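User: I've been trying to design a sequence by hand for this structure and keep getting stuck. Would you show me what you'd pick, starting by listing the structure so we're on the same page?

Assistant: Good idea, let's start from the same input. This is the structure you sent:
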């Protein structure tokens, strides 16, 4: 879990990064958000990448294949948020715990799959509710599991393509859960029908999960047990006979400094850089990951961005500041990937403990973005979207003199979008009502200048729902 002692300091103004940034530095840091979504310990994706690139070394893959594999390993979970709501609905349980446990189960074995269902369906509920949940899952059958994996893998491959990665990378992500014996998903590919890079992703992921949860012995045991069923026998043998025997192999995976180590695994003649356009693409791609977490936030990040940029134009903010504001808005809710869909999609009133979980997401946003070279300077503003001028917001309880103009704009845009969108507990509010609620908070909760910029934007029909206010 991401942890850091909260320090109340004034958020800094957004500033454009000036140094040359490696793409691997940006994406490896962002994988911690994907680890949160999958319920995995910090560094899961990076350790998978380190394991997978050891296969690349022994197989003597060419530079193009190594580069494609490197980014496929880092980004294998790009689609993981897209099935979170479905997992929660199917099992009536916490998607993070369900996903974590599933990775240690041989779900292609009907007995093991049945045990997983019985142990996890409606966990903590009454016997009657658990029984009905098990029956419901039984009626849906294997098709439901295939659909979950298909959604995840196809979404991840699609986002990888949108980031400009080659088809080799996208295909590996798509093949992540295919099995050598043809009993995997989503397409039931068998043997060499599965891309080589996809086969490497599959074994690297499982080995990492068992290593982190149970140690090196368990990692080798699972590679041996699933040889010829889940895994390409040649890859299992390579791992068991050579890779796992390498000096310092297991020690490297335990390094406390994984982010700084991982760039050394990228092919030196294929190092990719993150220029401004690439950073924009990454922010947009991760906004898609964020918004896919819940059916009620399908376009939240992009709508907030559209609204806040319109407000910035109303205030004639310089283009350079608008660019960073756009990135901060796209990424402001990245911390919500660490919140269970049991809470995000709950249709009844949240308990106080559930509210405490919700209130953690701005801090998660801060801690994630602070890791990311290229987005580090956005962390203060992006994580301030639930602050109030009177200091009664969260997570840092900042007051009026501690909130820069960009953060004040984001606060207003976020609230307005949330009110004018459907939520599990209410229908969308009309623009006029949302504006009235915001106006009542001017001077205490929200900034007057920011509110007026929004009001003018809405009046012109340039903010969702794109209907100008009548006189």
């Amino acid at each position: 879990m991401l942890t850091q002692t909260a320090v109340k300091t004034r958020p800094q103004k957004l500033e454009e990064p000036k140094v040359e940034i490696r793409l691997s530095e940006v994406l490896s840091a962002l994988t911690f958000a994907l680890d949160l979504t999958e319920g995995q310990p910090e560094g899961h994706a990076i350790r998978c990448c380190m394991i997978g690139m050891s296969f690349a070394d022994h197989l003597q893959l060419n530079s193009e294949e190594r580069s494609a594999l490197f980014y496929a390993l880092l980004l294998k979970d790009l689609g993981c948020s897209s099935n979170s709501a479905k997992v929660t609905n199917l099992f009536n349980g916490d998607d993070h715990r369900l996903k974590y446990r599933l990775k240690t189960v041989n779900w292609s074995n009907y007995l093991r799959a049945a045990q997983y269902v019985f142990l996890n369906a409606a966990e903590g509920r009454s016997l009657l509710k658990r029984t009905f949940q098990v029956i419901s899952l039984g009626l849906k059958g294997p098709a439901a599991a295939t659909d979950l994996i298909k959604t995840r893998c196809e979404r991840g491959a699609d986002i990888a393509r949108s980031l400009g990665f080659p088809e080799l990378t996208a295909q590996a992500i798509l093949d992540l859960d295919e099995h050598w014996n043809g009993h995997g998903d989503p397409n039931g590919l068998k043997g060499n029908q599965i891309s080589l890079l996809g086969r490497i992703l599959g074994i690297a992921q499982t080995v990492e999960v068992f290593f982190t949860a149970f140690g090196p012995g368990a990692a080798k045991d699972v590679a041996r047990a699933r040889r010829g069923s889940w895994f390409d026998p040649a890859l299992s043998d390579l791992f068991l006979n050579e890779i796992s025997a390498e000096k310092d192999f297991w020690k490297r995976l335990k390094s406390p400094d994984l982010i700084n180590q991982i760039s050394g695994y990228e092919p030196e003649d294929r190092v990719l850089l993150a220029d401004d356009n690439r950073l924009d693409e990454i922010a947009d791609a991760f906004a898609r990951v964020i918004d896919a977490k819940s059916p009620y936030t399908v376009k939240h990040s992009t709508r907030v961005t559209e609204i806040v940029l319109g407000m910035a134009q109303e205030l004639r903010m310089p283009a350079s500041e608008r660019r960073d504001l756009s990135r901060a808005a796209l990424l402001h809710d990245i911390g919500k990937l660490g919140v269970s869909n049991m809470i995000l999609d709950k249709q009844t009133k949240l308990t106080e403990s559930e509210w405490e979980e919700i209130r953690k997401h701005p801090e998660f946003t801060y801690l994630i973005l602070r890791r990311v070279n290229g987005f580090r300077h956005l962390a203060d503003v992006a994580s301030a979207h639930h602050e109030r001028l009177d200091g009664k917001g969260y997570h840092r309880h900042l007051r009026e003199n501690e909130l820069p103009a960009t953060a004040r704009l984001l606060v207003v845009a976020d609230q307005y979008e949330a009110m004018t969108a459907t939520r599990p507990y209410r229908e969308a509010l009309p623009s006029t009502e949302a504006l009235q609620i915001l106006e009542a908070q001017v001077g205490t909760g929200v900034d007057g200048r920011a509110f007026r910029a929004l009001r003018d934007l809405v009046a012109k029909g340039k903010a969702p729902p794109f209907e100008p206010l009548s006189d």
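That's my pick for every position. To get oriented when you compare it with your attempt: Residues 3-7 have pLDDT under 50 and may be disordered. The chain has two domains: 23-82+150-270, 276-459.
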